[in-house]
Amino acid sequence: MNVKRTFGTILTILGIIGLIYTGYGFVKHDANTRALLVSGLIGVVFFFSGIGLVKNTKDEA
Q1: If we measure between CA atoms, which residue out of 11, 5, 1 comes closest to residue 54?
Q2: What angle do CA 44, 47, 61 make, to 5 degrees?
Q3: What is the tens place of the pLDDT at every residue in 2-55?
Q4: DSSP letters for 1-61
Q5: Number of neighbours of residue 5 by Cβ within 10 angstroms
Q6: What are the two backbone dihedrals, phi and then psi, of residue 31, each rounded to the nearest 5 degrees?
Q7: pTM of the predicted protein model
Q8: With contact defined as beta carbons under 8 Å apart, do 30 and 58 qualify?
Q9: pLDDT at site 61
Q10: Do 19 and 44 form a contact (C-beta atoms < 8 A)?
Q11: 21, 56 Cβ separation under 8 angstroms
């Protein structure tokens, strides 16, 4: 089991959840825009770092 690839998958899923939450808040015109921006930024960081981990980790059997 490759721990880096698993952690990358978890980060990617958390990033997607954060981006969906941010998009939903912007569509519903939530008053707390600072929290939405922070969650969106964290979502982007998690998403791209997870994709990078999955992409750059070599399969070793």
Answers
A1: 5
A2: 160
A3: 888 899 999 999 999 999 999 999 998 877 888 899 999 999 999 999 999 988
A4: --HHHHHHHHHHHHHHHHHHHHHHHHHTT-S-HHHHHHHHHHHHHHHHHHHHHHHHPPP--
A5: 17
A6: -75, -25
A7: 0.85
A8: no
A9: 62
A10: yes
A11: no
Contact call for residues 5 and 57 (beta carbons, < 8 A): yes
Residue 1 corresponds to which amino acid?
M
Residue whose tokens read 């960081």: 45
CA pair distance 28, 51, nearest whole angstrom: 28
Q: Name which of 25, 15, 1 is nearest 51 in CA terms.
A: 15
